[in-house]
Design goal:
280 residues; alpha+beta; Rossmann fold; 2 domains; 7-stranded mixed β-sheet; 4-stranded antiparallel β-sheet; 29% helix; elongated
């Protein structure tokens, strides 16, 4: 994989250069592993031969809301315009795993947490993870990756091929493409889920885009399909958003009502994960 960088990795290297250091420890994969680099007059030399020029290092630091790839001595933003949705998607750095921006909206919580811990909190609400798991919105694949650690199989659905393009560039998403027990489907979850067998999943994670971007994924009709494919005794986590915000409070009440109408036996608020758990 190409080297992937953000301001998080580059800012300390600029400080090391200014302090007169000729080498430093950093990461070439957004913090997943560490490597030793050489600092010279031209820039940062990685052990695999790539060189980041100082002027490009300054550009990365200035553009601190996007990650970059480094190939040879050329950098490129990890940003894609989708022909499918007309959304701009980009990889947004944090101190931990990055998130994806979709039309400027982060797809994970990043305030007082990070995208990886956010994912763990969501999945924990329906523990233990077992059997077959349905992930209705792949995104960067973190949910599918975490669930696949203990699930027999994870089926994950992504509407937008551009989203998978961003995921392929993300070192934290590597297992999405390498784990044998993750099956990827491309298309609208509202169209794919009606084709799946009834009672075929033990757990479902429904982490859709916000209501304004994907209102049909919050409908009672869609929830009836989720209930149909969920096995008896199964659990569904539905991410909504900050329950203490006016939007989150209103949306949560409506979602709870529609889940009950769709046939879920019990619906419980899980504010620590900004969502609900519904029981079949």
């Amino acid at each position: 994989m190409p080297i992937v960088l953000s301001h998080v990795q580059i800012e300390p290297l600029l400080r090391a250069r200014d302090a007169g250091d000729t080498s430093a420890t950093t990461s070439a994969d957004l913090g997943r592993t560490e490597t030793r680099v050489t600092l010279d007059d031209e820039g940062i030399l990685y052990p695999t031969g790539e060189r980041l020029r100082w002027e490009d290092a300054a550009r990365i630091v200035k553009n601190n809301s996007v990650c970059f790839t480094l190939s040879g001595d050329e950098i490129a933003e990890i940003r894609v315009f989708s022909q499918t949705t007309n959304w701009v998607r980009s990889l947004y750095p944090t101190q931990s795993a990055p998130t994806m921006l979709v039309s400027g909206v982060p797809m994970h919580r990043i305030k007082d947490t990070d995208p990886w811990r956010d994912t763990l909190a969501k999945v924990k609400t329906i523990a233990p993870i077992m059997g077959r798991v349905l992930d209705t919105a792949t995104g960067l694949g973190y949910t599918a990756i975490v669930a696949a650690e203990t699930a027999a199989e994870v089926v994950t659905i992504e509407l937008d091929p551009a989203g998978l393009e961003i995921a392929r560039a993300n070192p934290w998403s590597r297992d999405l493409f390498e784990r044998a027990n993750i099956q990827q489907l491309i298309g609208d979850a509202a169209e794919i889920i009606p084709t799946l067998d009834a009672a075929s999943f033990a757990r479902i994670v429904h982490d859709p885009p916000q209501l304004s971007l994907a209102g049909h994924l919050y409908s009672e009709e869609f929830y009836r399909e989720l209930r149909r494919v969920l096995a008896r005794g199964g659990r569904l986590f539905h991410y909504i958003g900050d329950p203490n915000s006016p939007f989150g409070s209103r949306t949560t009440s409506g979602v709870m009502r529609r889940l009950h109408n769709a046939g879920f036996a019990r619906v419980v608020r899980r504010p620590e994960a900004f969502g609900l758990v519904a029981y079949a």
